[in-house]
Every structure is written in structure tokens, then in C-alpha cells.
């Protein structure tokens, strides 16, 4: 797996250009010994970083040495398409070389026909034109910043924060994050830094920027229910896995849920035996997730290594390091994916990952009623976080955060054609792509290569066209597994911390009462239940895991005197003194401050000591809990 960065602009000497590109590349190492390759031009350069030998295939030049292409991610089974489009028709060496030849021949008309998770940058010195592009679904992240001085781009936002002039927090993006759990559209946490949208091509030349779409999956019309075939779904998924198999070593991170289970079923059918590894969710169902994984492996005649939860993990630098690698754009700083990353080593080979499978097959986080019924659930934290942010921030800072949120949200929704699947497409374009997709492609790529068959174009094109009413509550997912992979149902299923009934009819009956307004009422009562709020205010950290999380949280907050110009400084100092003394009433409020501080310390203040201090255990010595 590769990462990508670069800069092109005018008026910079060669030494400055070199320093800019190498600084961005260094920001994405994260302690790993990544291989670096560079392509230099008079006006800039491209860097490729790789944790393995494939980096040598990710940078390519044309025969005149006037055009270069750097590739992040992977093309899958697209070689025939590339060769057909190539001007020479000869077998090129490496994916980047093949893509460059084909792109020179056909330009953007080639891109909708390519399969895989990729983003690339190509520069033509003859026209002084930089082009950035990605795949139809845009799961492989690429971020950019442009102004009259040039265009900076990188696989991670923090690389741009190190070099662009006057980097600052985008308060509207912060509103997106606190109100919806992720950014909307192409925003990132930094003002002016954008994410390349799904299926997008950006060109930069002579200070001018042009953005066009080569594919738009949100315009996929839903199928008629009678045309949906679980056999077709199963066949397309099996083909997606087959396209990603190779003779190289690979590992499947097996859980007790559906996604990794389905990948294992497909590999088993294909006669592929990857290494199986399960990480214990000790705090969920008494570790049943890991037990079910090992039981399923035995049923299929395979061994699965079970690794226990690490003591002290949530007070370790490994936990916070994942937040850093993912540019702080994660819904909770203690995601289970943090534990996964800490276990990765190059010897595991490629890692099979179930990204987007739940979105394509499950639609589990939707109720009936389309956009109107689902938006209140989508924004259930907004009312609470809005009140808290008004206490944290000055009126001017809160206004910059809050005022345009509703208009921007509805503008993003209106970009998606009205259909039964409108909300599902909105969630995939924003929540799934921005919140889940960076996990393997941005996180894993420093160590291993992720393999994500759930994002296969041929599979996802069909899966997303299934009406959402057929996919809600895993009905279609379970039906497909029951009919075409029945051997996977010999062991109970846990998905998202919940046990799923294998009997689909029973599942439908149990779930019917939760459809529509009842779900909203239940969610609202849970959020604003007075007894719950009083209990939360009076309690102390109950488990060792909670205490570990709070050790890190309090240590980070203690690094500031809340004297940033956007804080209600006096009020925050008073509340923090009470919180540190054990007043859990303020826990939710200071969780938001914790995020704001981490964003500034790690990405804007460029504090290099914070992670080192946590790794050295300084926070565990400095934080004492009230009895």
C-alpha cells in the first residue's frame, strides 16, 4: 500500500520545493520505516511512500520524461482496460506505468471503467498542469490545498498542516463533526484543505483550479424489489474477493460479526487459507466476539489466533496515535480500530478488511421514512452538543461554528437525487466514506496493505442499487448468507455490539416496532432522561478502561490554561477545576474541549512532545482521581 504527497507552484527555488515535499512525506511516516521515492520538476515534485516493495511500481514516467504519475492505493483487475486504452498496446511494467499510458491516451474517460481503491497525481511539464483523481467511490483518501502560490496535496491532512501558510481550524467543519460525527462534503478540519470527492478529477494550472466529476454513484437508480437476486450479490462478492487474492501472505482480522465472516466464507470457497487473527472485545458481551470468531474458524477446519485486550491500552500512546494518524477525524478517540492498529506488523502481509460491506448490504442504521425520518436520528447529538459548545466558546466563535450548519447540511442532501435510497447514498458519501473509509487506507497503509472487497465497483454498483427497504436491519445480508453461505451460520453473530437473530422472519418481527417515529422518541428519551443525567453527574469512573481514558483526557486538558482566543476562559478554568476534582457533570463538555485541544496541539501547534509524554507514562503519574 502506498501514500502520496506533493507540491507544484511558481516562484519557489529548488531547495524550498524539495523541503516542502520532504516535510510532507516525513509527516506520514508515524515511526514506520517507509520507502520513499521522488519525482522532481522545476516547479515542484511528487513523493511516494510505501511500507513494502510495491512503491517501486507506484511512480512512473512517460517516454519523454516530461510527465509523471504517482499512485496511492491499488487498481484491481483493471490491466485489460489499461492495455486496451494504452497507445502502444505493449505490456507496461507496474500499475502506475499502465495507468499513465492509458490516461495519456484516454484521459478522464478511462476512470469510470477502473476498479479498485486508488487516488493518483500526474504532472505534465509541457503544459504545467497537475491532475489529481480518484476512483468512483473515493475510499482512498487524498487531500489538497490551493492558492495563487501553488497546489499542495497529500494522503493525510497533517502533512499539509506542516507546510501550508497560516493553517487554522475550520469552525464550520468542527460543527459538522460535533453535530453529525464527521465532516460534510469535502471539508476537513483545516480551513481551505479539502478532501478529493468520490469520482472527482481536479486540475491545477497557472493558479487556476477546475473540478469535475467522472462518476457519481448517488445517481444510481434503485432496482425494483423483484429484480434483486441474492445469488447475484453472492456471486459478485465472491468475484470481488477472487480479484484480490494473490500468492502473497495475507491475514483476515476475524470477528464475530458479519463482514469478516463473509470474507472468510468467500476465501474458503476459493480454497484460500489466510492467517486468521481475532482481537478480543473484552468490554462487549464478555469477550463473546472473539470466542465466536475462534469457534467459526474451527467449524471450517482452520486455526484462529485470539489476542487478548491489552491492559492499560487506553492510557497508552498507541491509542492516541491512531487519532493522530487519522487527522482527528474519528467519532471517538478510543475506537476499537486503535487496538487493531497496535497489533499490525509487516509480517502479517495484506490485511483483509470489510469496509463498506455493511453499507452495501445492511443499511442497519436506517429506519423507514427516508431523509425526513432519518435526519433526526442522524443529528441526535446536535441539541446537546450545541448547548455545550455555547458554554465553551465565545459568542463569535460559536456563531462561526453554528450559523450555517443547517443550510450546508440541506445543500449536501439536495445534491443527491430523490429516491428511496437517497439517505443511504448520503450516508455512504459522508459518514461511511469520511468516518470509516480512512481506517484501512489511511491508517493501515503505514504498516500493511488493506484488501477491501466490499468496495469493489462491480459488487457495490449492484448492492447499492438494492432498495433500502430490503436492506434495513441486515435482512438482505442475512438472507444472502443463509441461502449461499449457510456454513457461516453455525456460530452466533454479533454485529455492532448486538446479537443478530439468524431467523430472518423473527428478526423482521422484532425490528418492526423500532421503525419510524418510535425510534426517534426512544432516542430522545435516552439522551435527555433526567435520571440518566443525574446518575452520570454523580458517578465516578467505574471501570479500569474508563479510568485509563480519563487519565489521557485530563493530562491533555491540563496542557492548556484555556487561554486560546475562542474560549470562555474564566468559566472553563472554574469548571475544569471541578471536573478534575471528580465532578462528572462536566465530562461531556470537556470531551468536546479535549477534541478541540487535540486538534490544535497535534495539527496546528505541531506539538511533538504530547505523544512522547504519553508514551513515557507522564500522564499516569500526573493524574489522580478523586475518591
Reconstruct the topology from this structure:
Layout: E1 2-9, H1 14-27, E2 35-41, E3 44-50, E4 59-61, E5 67-75, H2 79-85, H3 95-106, E6 116-124, E7 129-134, E8 143-147, E9 150-154, H4 157-161, H5 171-180, E10 194-195, E11 200-205, E12 208-213, H6 230-243, E13 250-253, H7 259-269, E14 275-279, H8 288-299, E15 304-307, H9 317-325, H10 337-343, E16 350-352, H11 357-362, H12 370-378, H13 382-392, H14 395-402, H15 405-414, H16 422-436, H17 438-443, E17 450-451, H18 457-464, H19 468-471, H20 475-484, E18 493-495, E19 498-500, H21 504-512, H22 517-528, H23 530-538, H24 544-557, H25 569-580, H26 587-604, H27 609-615, H28 618-622
Helix pairs in contact: 2-3, 5-14, 6-7, 6-18, 6-20, 9-10, 9-27, 13-26, 24-26
For the biggest sheet, the summary is: 6 strands, antiparallel
Using only C-alpha atoms, the radius of gyration works out to 24 Å
- The main sheet orders its strands as 2-3-1-9-8-10
The CATH top-level class label of the largest domain: Alpha Beta
What structural class results from the helix and strand content?
A: alpha+beta
Q: What is the CATH topology descriptor of the largest domain?
A: Rossmann fold
> What's the architecture of the largest domain, going by CATH?
3-Layer(aba) Sandwich
Number of strands: 19
Amount of helix:
40-55%
Oligomer: single chain
CATH superfamily of the largest domain: HUPs
Number of helices: 28
In what range is the share of β-strand residues? 15-25%
Q: What best-fitting shape do the alpha-carbon axes yield?
A: globular
Q: What's the pLDDT, averaged over the residues?
A: 86
How many domain modules? Answer: 3
End-to-end Cα distance: 48 Å
Amino acid at each position: 500500500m502506498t501514500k502520496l504527497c506533493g507540491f507544484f507552484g511558481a516562484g519557489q527555488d529548488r531547495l524550498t520545493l524539495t523541503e516542502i515535499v520532504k516535510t510532507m512525506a516525513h509527516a506520514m511516516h508515524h515511526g514506520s520505516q517507509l520507502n520513499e521515492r521522488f519525482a522532481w520538476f522545476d516547479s515542484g515534485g511528487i513523493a511516494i511512500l510505501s511500507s513494502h516493495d510495491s512503491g517501486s511500481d507506484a511512480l512512473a514516467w512517460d517516454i519523454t520524461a516530461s510527465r509523471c504519475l504517482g499512485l496511492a492505493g491499488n487498481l484491481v483487475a483493471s490491466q485489460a482496460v489499461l492495455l486496451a486504452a494504452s497507445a502502444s498496446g505493449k505490456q507496461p511494467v507496474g500499475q502506475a506505468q499502465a495507468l499513465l499510458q492509458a490516461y495519456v491516451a484516454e484521459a478522464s474517460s478511462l476512470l469510470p471503467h477502473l476498479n479498485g481503491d486508488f487516488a493518483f497525481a500526474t504532472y505534465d511539464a509541457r503544459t504545467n498542469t497537475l491532475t489529481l483523481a480518484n476512483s468512483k467511490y473515493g475510499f482512498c483518501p487524498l487531500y489538497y490545498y490551493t492558492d495563487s502560490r501553488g497546489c499542495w496535496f497529500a494522503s493525510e491532512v497533517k502533512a499539509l498542516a506542516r507546510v501550508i501558510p497560516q493553517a487554522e481550524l475550520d469552525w464550520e467543519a468542527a460543527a459538522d463533526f460535533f453535530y453529525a460525527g464527521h465532516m460534510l462534503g469535502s471539508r476537513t478540519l483545516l480551513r481551505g484543505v479539502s478532501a478529493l470527492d468520490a469520482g472527482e478529477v481536479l486540475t491545477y494550472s497557472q493558479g487556476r483550479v477546475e473540478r469535475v466529476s467522472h462518476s457519481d454513484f448517488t445517481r444510481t437508480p434503485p432496482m425494483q424489489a423483484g429484480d434483486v437476486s441474492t445469488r447475484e450479490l453472492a456471486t459478485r462478492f465472491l468475484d470481488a474477493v477472487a480479484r484480490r487474492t494473490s500468492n502473497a501472505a495475507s491475514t483476515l482480522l476475524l470477528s464475530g460479526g458479519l463482514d469478516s465472516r463473509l470474507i472468510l466464507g468467500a476465501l474458503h470457497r476459493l480454497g484460500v487459507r489466510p492467517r486468521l487473527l481475532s482481537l478480543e472485545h473484552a468490554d462487549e458481551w464478555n469477550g463473546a466476539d472473539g470466542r465466536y470468531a475462534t469457534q467459526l474458524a474451527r467449524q471450517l477446519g482452520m486455526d484462529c489466533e485470539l489476542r487478548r485486550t491489552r491492559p492499560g491500552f487506553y492510557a497508552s500512546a498507541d491509542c492516541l496515535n491512531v487519532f493522530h494518524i487519522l487527522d482527528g477525524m474519528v467519532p471517538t478517540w478510543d475506537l476499537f480500530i486503535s487496538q487493531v492498529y497496535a497489533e499490525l506488523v509487516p509480517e502479517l502481509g495484506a490485511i483483509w478488511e470489510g469496509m463498506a460491506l455493511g453499507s452495501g448490504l445492511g443499511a442497519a442504521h436506517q429506519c423507514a421514512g427516508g431523509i425526513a425520518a432519518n435526519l433526526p436520528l442522524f443529528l441526535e447529538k446536535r441539541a446537546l452538543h450545541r448547548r455545550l459548545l455555547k458554554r465553551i466558546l465565545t459568542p463569535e466563535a460559536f456563531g462561526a461554528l453554528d450559523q450555517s450548519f443547517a443550510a450546508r447540511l440541506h445543500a449536501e442532501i439536495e445534491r443527491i437525487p430523490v429516491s428511496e435510497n437517497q439517505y443511504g447514498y448520503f450516508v455512504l458519501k459522508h459518514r461511511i466514506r469520511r468516518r470509516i473509509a480512512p481506517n484501512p487506507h489511511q491508517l493501515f497503509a503505514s504498516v500493511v496493505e488493506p484488501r477491501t472487497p466490499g468496495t469493489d465497483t462491480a459488487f457495490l454498483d449492484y448492492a447499492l442499487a438494492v432498495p433500502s427497504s430490503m436492506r434495513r436491519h441486515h435482512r438482505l445480508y442475512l438472507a444472502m448468507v443463509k441461502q449461499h453461505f449457510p456454513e457461516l451460520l453455525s456460530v452466533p453473530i454479533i454485529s455492532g455490539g448486538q446479537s443478530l437473530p439468524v431467523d430472518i422472519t423473527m428478526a423482521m418481527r422484532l425490528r418492526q416496532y423500532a421503525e419510524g417515529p418510535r425510534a426517534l422518541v426512544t432516542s430522545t428519551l435516552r439522551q435527555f432522561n433526567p435520571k440518566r443525567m443525574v446518575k452520570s453527574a454523580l458517578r465516578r469512573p467505574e471501570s479500569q478502561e474508563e479510568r485509563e481514558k480519563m487519565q489521557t483526557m485530563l493530562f491533555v486538558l491540563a496542557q492548556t490554561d484555556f487561554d486560546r482566543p475562542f474560549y470562555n476562559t474564566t468559566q472553563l478554568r472554574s469548571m475544569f477545576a471541578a471536573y478534575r476534582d471528580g465532578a462528572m457533570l462536566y465530562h461531556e463538555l470537556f470531551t468536546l474541549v479535549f477534541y478541540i485541544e487535540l486538534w490544535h496541539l497535534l495539527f496546528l501547534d505541531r506539538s511533538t512532545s504530547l505523544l512522547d509524554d504519553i508514551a513515557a507514562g507522564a500522564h499516569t503519574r500526573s493524574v489522580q482521581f478523586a475518591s
